[in-house]
Amino acid sequence: MRISGLLCFGALAGVALASTETGIAKRSTISEILTDIEDDATCAACEALLVVLQALAHLGNDDFVDVITEVCILAGVDDDDVCEGAIAREGPILAHDLRNMDVPSKTAVLFCTTIFGLCDYPAVAEYTVDFPSAKPANASRPTSSGETPLQIVHISDIHVDLSYETGANYNCTKPICCRPYTSSDDPGVTDYPAGEYGNHNCDAPLTLEESMYSAINDLVPNASFVIFTGDVVEGAVWLVNETEVTNDLNDAYNSRMADYFDLVYGVTGNHDCAPVNSFPPADIDTTISSQWAYDTLSSDWSQWIGSTAASTADDYGAYSVKYSGGNLRIISFNTNLYYKENFWLYEKTMEKDPSGQLAWLVDELSAAETAGERVWLMGHMPMGSGDTFHDASNYFNQIIQRYDATIAAVFYGHTHKDEFELAYSNYTDQSADTASMMSYIMPAMTPTSGNPAFRVYSVDPVTFGVLDFTEYITNMSSSTYQTNPTWEKYYSAKETYGSLLDPPVTDSAAELTPAFWHNVTVLFENDDSVFQDYYARKSRGWDVSECTGDCKTDEICQLRAAESQYNCVEITPGISFKKRDAITTRDTSTNPRESTCGESVVGQMFSSFDNAVEALIKATETKLGSGFLNTTVNATIS
Ligand SMILES: *[C@@H]1O[C@H](CO)[C@@H](O)[C@H](O)[C@H]1NC(C)=O
Ligand SMILES: *[C@@H]1O[C@H](CO)[C@@H](O)[C@H](O)[C@H]1NC(C)=O
Ligand SMILES: *[C@@H]1O[C@H](CO)[C@@H](O)[C@H](O)[C@H]1NC(C)=O
Ligand SMILES: *[C@@H]1O[C@H](CO)[C@@H](O)[C@H](O)[C@H]1NC(C)=O
Ligand SMILES: *[C@@H]1O[C@H](CO)[C@@H](O)[C@H](O)[C@H]1NC(C)=O
Ligand SMILES: *[C@@H]1O[C@H](CO)[C@@H](O)[C@H](O)[C@H]1NC(C)=O
Ligand SMILES: *[C@@H]1O[C@H](CO)[C@@H](O)[C@H](O)[C@H]1NC(C)=O
Ligand SMILES: *[C@@H]1O[C@H](CO)[C@@H](O)[C@H](O)[C@H]1NC(C)=O
Ligand SMILES: *[C@@H]1O[C@H](CO)[C@@H](O)[C@H](O)[C@H]1NC(C)=O
Fold first, then answer.
1. How far apart are CA 225 and CA 456, in angstroms?
2. Could you tell me the residue ranges of all domains in the chain?
3. Which atom of ligand 8 is nearest the CA belonging to 629?
4. What is the CA radius of gyration of the chain?
């Protein structure tokens, strides 16, 4: 908690959270609380706001959704219909949270940190993950076999929009365009007609998805299999429902991928559900269930992973399966259980291991270690990113450190950027010697954050260590893109960095070890042009800006943080990015880690705190009359 925030808050009339330690609960009207905190975007003010939101939630979901929708509209966060659709979906989950929350509490502070950006991150609650056996003293990463490498394809974040219309307006005011939202957006009417193969303001048309899969088959005919790190569904989160998500998942997995590829290993993305990000852990008592999404994913994946693995996938969207072509186990886990935008996780007493997934992961890794198998661990959200709870990331990292000789590498998507994350056995002593695990982060196919891309890993067929990867892109700025998109090699990791290291790493049989990647980050520090080229590749050469000073320091800090408490992400009230032009501005902002994926509308609403509080006062008055504002509540509700 910020000291200055507390001091400032203590001076406020009427509300006195700081005095709760003495047991005196001050009572005030909601109107007084809101007036007091209006000009005070602090942690304590945020907690006081939660008291008000909680009182609102106790009126029931309908009133809660009504008022918050009005706030969204009044604060000008999004178009009215986006506010209405998004809050109708997010609102009941948030209201459930608030009704069960203690204010003040660690959960309340965490909520004010991750959603409103107004509190400092609470310290990690220490917890020692239980392992069936200690790490063997001789555990070590096996050396490369030198045998002919396999090729394995990585794709991510396809976000296919089956409602994309060629000719529809690409310059709309909504989070994604290229749909005829209104008649003036219609093909033939709009001045901004979308091309056949996509636009950077829109999620991907089916033509782009088909083009990429076809290119993969042409360019990598001998690929052993494809890994897909999640997010099938498009970003019109204010409209998605169970019917659409089910249809999107079935279309991508059963109609498209199954058509082009023999073997695909998928993961559960945060968009692969409705409402978006809504994945209640098993212990939550609610009628809003994501079981149907797990049912659909499990059924779609069973053609590749078999019925045993499919049945775990049906429990919580994760599975473990042996690859039949070699000594490799694929473990796909559900990162939504650690994602800050999954509102179900803000429980009264937050669970250390939601749905028991970490214990399951330990069991699977332990069995793989005993069997002498190598493991590829796959998830959607990188566990070191600013989107991941510090606590969960710490517990997960204990598992990575314990099994770092068994896990060959970790694979993620979600950020839409070409980047990576390194784990260290000791984060205060980051070096090639302590670098212990590499996480490969695959950029998106959807064009919203850059040129569409896929990757091909060159992989040791015995150790399954990654020897290199080659990234392919299609350049949307090319004059022939909209008639005939072509896919070309963009760069290879080993070609780009290997010869610049000391000693050089150019042998095709040499693994790209965690130490190799640590040395690449040192190269970034020492050779700025290599770093700027890396930075340009994050968006695959689209809309490139320079990254210097804090931007560069923070970027390298994030590359060296597979545990999120070390990632240097600063907690700040977000830029109030709204509507189309501001979203474009945000993409080119200097904050390199800003996730463009799955941000809640509620979080965006309160990123301009005084504006939102003022809107809340007006909205409650309009929707509920002055009676609610006159209600007396305790500044702390136990
Ligand atoms: C570690 O030692 C055990 C027991 O001596 C042996 O079975 C195992 O193969 C060794 N593992 C490695 C990676 O050398
Ligand atoms: C989008 O439309 C606005 C006017 O509504 C115009 O000023 C702007 O230049 C357009 N943007 C693009 C990328 O065409
Ligand atoms: C694919 O494998 C076949 C047979 O092993 C080989 O002849 C061919 O050159 C390979 N193609 C590519 C593109 O690597
Ligand atoms: C789901 O969304 C689609 C597309 O927006 C809509 O046509 C359909 O009526 C919705 N279904 C339900 C059950 O709400
Ligand atoms: C981690 O590194 C720091 C700095 O070198 C050192 O002081 C500390 O003892 C190390 N921790 C462990 C657990 O080895
Ligand atoms: C990393 O750099 C260190 C120090 O420069 C060097 O000793 C080591 O061999 C390098 N490791 C790799 C894998 O490049
Ligand atoms: C894409 O094409 C444009 C236009 O030809 C060119 O300026 C740009 O450098 C290309 N980008 C990449 C990554 O090749
Ligand atoms: C709320 O308080 C205001 C100011 O004290 C008063 O004018 C208004 O009538 C009250 N409203 C209700 C419903 O009690
Ligand atoms: C508010 O505080 C008073 C006095 O401490 C207490 O009696 C009352 O139960 C509290 N109300 C709520 C809703 O917690």
1. 10
2. 3-121+571-634, 150-164+203-566, 165-202
3. 1
4. 24
Measured CA to CA, the distance from residue 165 to residue 398 in angstroms comes to: 47
The ligand that comes nearest to the alpha carbon of residue 627 is 8
Report pLDDT for 431. Answer: 98
Q: Is 190 helix (H, G, I), strand (E, B) or coil?
A: coil
| Spatial CA neighbour of 296 closest among 357, 248, 237, 235 | 248
The ligand placed nearest to the CA atom of residue 237 is: 4
Q: Which fold has domain 150-164+203-566?
A: Purple Acid Phosphatase; chain A, domain 2 (3.60.21)
For residues 62-66, average pLDDT: 97
Cα–Cα distances in angstroms (integers) from residue 327 to residues 80, 297, 371, in the given order: 54, 25, 10
- Residue 378 Cα to ligand 5 middle (Å): 29
**Ligand 5 centroid – CA 197 distance (Å):** 52
The contacts of residue 304 (CB under 8 Å, 6+ apart) are: 263, 264, 265
From residue 570, alpha-carbon distances to 18, 181, 532, 555 in Å are 25, 36, 22, 12
What is the whole-number distance in angstroms between the Cα of residue 598 and the centre of ligand 3?
A: 40
Atom of ligand 3 nearest to the CA of 151: 14
Overall average pLDDT of the 199-213 stretch: 98
User: What's the pLDDT at 635?
Assistant: 60
How far apart, in whole angstroms, are the C-alpha atoms of residue 90 and residue 53?
14
Q: Is a pLDDT exceeding 50 seen at residue 340?
A: yes
Mean pLDDT over the full length of the chain: 91
What residues pair up with 435 in beta bridges, in sequence order?
424
What pLDDT, in 10s, does the model give residues 19-33? 343 333 467 899 999
The CB density around residue 123, as the number of other CB atoms within 10 Å, is 10
- With DSSP H G I counted as helix, E B as strand and the rest as coil, what are the percentages for the chain, rounded to 5? 40, 15, 45
150 phi/psi in degrees, rounded to 5:
-90, 160
> At 112, which helix (H) or strand (E)?
helix 106-114
Backbone angles phi, psi at 421, to 5 degrees: -140, 135
Query: What is the mean predicted confidence (pLDDT) over 412-424?
Result: 98
pLDDT, one tens digit per residue, over 361-375 is: 999 999 999 999 999
Phi, psi values for residue 200, rounded to 5°:
-65, -15
The predicted pLDDT at position 26 comes to 64
- What does pTM read for this prediction? 0.93
Tell me which residue has tokens 């498209």: 256
For the CA of 636, the closest atom of ligand 9 is 14
152-197 pLDDT, tens per residue? 999 999 999 999 999 999 999 999 999 999 999 999 999 999 999 9
Closest residue by Cα to atom 12, ligand 2, is 171
